């Protein structure tokens, strides 16, 4: 089944998958699902010195038919308190939208998401309430993010 | 007949929120051109340009390696002014040392044994004029001249046959001369010693001057792009889109050679942005690189997209 699928998969996706497994980026793991080699189960460790430190965040990543001309679709499955991630896990990140370039890869996308956890940007919010909280009382918002991390991202 | 690509500088694009919300528009009119080849008969290897101490304190020899596919000669100038309205004539307050002739050959070393006088005297010339370009005066100019092979072939055996030895160093370039001119300036290296840095290179072909522009991502034989050239994670010289076929197509005017021909064709139906820098692609240039010996690769390093210089 998987072998049949792999035969139809573009060489680029096979290469990217192999490299993600053989040389994973620090704090990131991504492996394709057995049923669909374009669907990846992703885990990102909360970066040090961020309110997500100590958390393990699950995401799903899907490579659409026209990848790499079109960006991968990525979503957090683990609940996270972050001004650029909404309650459905959707991520506000320019490279996943109009700043996508086919020179980017699964690895670079996941590294960007990891960086977004270190540097929340409440000026370009997706979750309005969280962004407001962040701007009005950053200390308290960070405490909430820490609390959510221990509630939802540690088990 | 294909023409050499006419280079225009890339306008700096702001990267930021100002650009949001503009979907990339497909480019219908954009064609993929094939390069016209201008045979670069003489090429100074930029990386080899250096200064060498002489017995006299503060006086340095200009040294470099170069390749020549036909016999040629070398002239050097210090604190020289170039007049683009007069066929790139070069004038200098310091008299030029006699031209040095070389047979055709690869990896010639300049100056050869017994050649002297091609020096920079850091005591005599003011440091400011040696380290910066001021009102069209270049600190160091090196010109490699050869007979244009096409014109020489046509004139062989007739009374039109030309000879380089009839030319004064730095004179107005006739159309039957093909030359490459390298402009450089002195820099202080970290250890305090003087070094030489290339500012630009131009070639003169059949009466037109072209500035040589490097193509990014064209390096041959290096094991893969590294983080420094922005193609991290891509092995070897593979297209950044399919990661399979070799890169042979350059986005213009940004000069990023990052795609194979077929991915470039697919890309242009979707977007007009360069995958590497996101600048607008005005045209695509397909460069056929033959897998010839390293000498050809070295020549290709010097041959890049060229820009014609309109006389002022």
Automatic annotation (TrEMBL), chain A:
<keyword id="KW-0067">ATP-binding</keyword>
<feature type="active site" description="Glycyl thioester intermediate">
    <location>
        <position position="92"/>
    </location>
</feature>
<dbReference type="GO" id="GO:0016740">
    <property type="term" value="F:transferase activity"/>
</dbReference>
<keyword id="KW-0547">Nucleotide-binding</keyword>
<keyword id="KW-0833">Ubl conjugation pathway</keyword>
<feature type="domain" description="UBC core">
    <location>
        <begin position="8"/>
        <end position="154"/>
    </location>
</feature>
<dbReference type="Pfam" id="PF00179">
    <property type="entry name" value="UQ_con"/>
</dbReference>
<comment type="similarity">
    <text>Belongs to the ubiquitin-conjugating enzyme family.</text>
</comment>
<dbReference type="InterPro" id="IPR016135">
    <property type="entry name" value="UBQ-conjugating_enzyme/RWD"/>
</dbReference>
<dbReference type="InterPro" id="IPR023313">
    <property type="entry name" value="UBQ-conjugating_AS"/>
</dbReference>
<keyword id="KW-0808">Transferase</keyword>
<dbReference type="InterPro" id="IPR000608">
    <property type="entry name" value="UBC"/>
</dbReference>
<protein>
    <recommendedName>
        <fullName>UBC core domain-containing protein</fullName>
    </recommendedName>
</protein>
<dbReference type="GO" id="GO:0005524">
    <property type="term" value="F:ATP binding"/>
</dbReference>
UniProtKB/TrEMBL annotation, chain B:
<dbReference type="InterPro" id="IPR045195">
    <property type="entry name" value="LOG2-like_mRING_C3HC5"/>
</dbReference>
<keyword id="KW-0519">Myristate</keyword>
<keyword id="KW-0808">Transferase</keyword>
<comment type="similarity">
    <text>Belongs to the RING-type zinc finger family. LOG2 subfamily.</text>
</comment>
<keyword id="KW-0449">Lipoprotein</keyword>
<comment type="pathway">
    <text>Protein modification; protein ubiquitination.</text>
</comment>
<dbReference type="Pfam" id="PF13920">
    <property type="entry name" value="zf-C3HC4_3"/>
</dbReference>
<dbReference type="GO" id="GO:0061630">
    <property type="term" value="F:ubiquitin protein ligase activity"/>
</dbReference>
<keyword id="KW-0863">Zinc-finger</keyword>
<dbReference type="InterPro" id="IPR045194">
    <property type="entry name" value="MGRN1/RNF157-like"/>
</dbReference>
<keyword id="KW-0479">Metal-binding</keyword>
<dbReference type="Pfam" id="PF26192">
    <property type="entry name" value="RNF157-like_N"/>
</dbReference>
<keyword id="KW-0833">Ubl conjugation pathway</keyword>
<feature type="region of interest" description="Disordered">
    <location>
        <begin position="1"/>
        <end position="27"/>
    </location>
</feature>
<keyword id="KW-0862">Zinc</keyword>
<dbReference type="GO" id="GO:0016567">
    <property type="term" value="P:protein ubiquitination"/>
</dbReference>
<dbReference type="GO" id="GO:0008270">
    <property type="term" value="F:zinc ion binding"/>
</dbReference>
<feature type="domain" description="RING-type">
    <location>
        <begin position="239"/>
        <end position="278"/>
    </location>
</feature>
<protein>
    <recommendedName>
        <fullName>RING-type E3 ubiquitin transferase</fullName>
        <ecNumber>2.3.2.27</ecNumber>
    </recommendedName>
</protein>
<dbReference type="InterPro" id="IPR058981">
    <property type="entry name" value="MGRN1/RNF157-like_N"/>
</dbReference>
<dbReference type="InterPro" id="IPR001841">
    <property type="entry name" value="Znf_RING"/>
</dbReference>
<dbReference type="InterPro" id="IPR013083">
    <property type="entry name" value="Znf_RING/FYVE/PHD"/>
</dbReference>
């Amino acid at each position: 089944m998987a072998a049949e699928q792999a035969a139809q998969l573009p060489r680029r996706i096979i290469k990217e998958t192999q490299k993600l497994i053989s040389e994973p980026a620090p704090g990131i793991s991504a492996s394709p699902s057995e049923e669909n080699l374009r669907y990846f189960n992703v885990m990102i460790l909360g970066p040090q010195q961020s309110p997500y430190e100590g958390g393990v965040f699950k995401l799903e990543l899907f490579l659409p038919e026209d990848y790499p001309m079109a960006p991968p679709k990525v979503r957090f499955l683990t609940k996270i308190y972050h001004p650029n991630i909404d309650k459905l896990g959707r991520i506000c990140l320019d490279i996943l939208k109009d700043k996508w370039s086919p020179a980017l890869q699964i690895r670079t996308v996941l590294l960007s998401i990891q960086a977004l956890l270190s540097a929340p940007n409440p000026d370009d919010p997706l979750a309005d309430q969280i962004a407001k909280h962040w701007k009005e009382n950053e200390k308290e918002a960070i405490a909430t993010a820490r609390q959510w991390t221990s509630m939802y991202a540690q088990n | 007949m294909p023409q050499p690509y006419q280079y225009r500088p890339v306008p700096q694009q702001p990267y930021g929120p100002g650009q949001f919300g503009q979907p990339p528009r497909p480019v219908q009119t954009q064609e993929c051109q094939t390069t016209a080849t201008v045979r670069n008969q003489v090429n100074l290897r930029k990386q080899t340009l250096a200064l060498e101490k002489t017995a006299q304190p503060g006086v340095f020899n200009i040294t470099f390696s170069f390749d020549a596919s036909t016999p040629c000669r070398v002239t050097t100038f210090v604190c020289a002014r170039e007049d683009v309205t007069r066929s790139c004539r070069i004038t200098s307050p310091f008299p030029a040392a006699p031209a040095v002739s070389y047979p055709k050959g690869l990896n010639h070393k300049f100056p050869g044994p017994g050649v002297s006088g091609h020096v920079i005297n850091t005591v005599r010339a003011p440091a400011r004029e040696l380290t910066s370009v001021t009102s069209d005066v270049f600190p160091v100019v090196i010109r490699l001249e050869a007979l244009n092979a096409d014109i020489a072939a046509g004139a062989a055996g007739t009374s039109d046959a030309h000879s380089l030895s009839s030319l004064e160093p730095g004179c107005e370039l006739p159309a039957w001369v093909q030359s490459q001119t390298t402009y450089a300036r002195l820099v202080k290296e970290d250890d305090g010693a003087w070094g030489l840095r290339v500012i630009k290179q131009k070639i003169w072909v059949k009466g037109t001057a072209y500035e040589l522009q490097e193509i990014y991502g064209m390096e041959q034989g290096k094991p893969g792009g590294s983080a420094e050239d922005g193609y991290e994670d891509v092995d070897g010289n593979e297209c950044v889109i399919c990661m399979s076929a070799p890169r042979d197509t350059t986005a213009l005017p940004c000069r990023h050679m990052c795609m194979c021909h077929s991915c470039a064709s697919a890309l242009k139906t979707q977007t007009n942005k360069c995958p590497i820098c996101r600048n607008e692609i005005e045209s695509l240039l397909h460069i056929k690189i033959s897998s010839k010996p390293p000498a050809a690769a070295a020549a290709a390093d010097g041959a890049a997209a060229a820009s014609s210089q309109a006389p002022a």
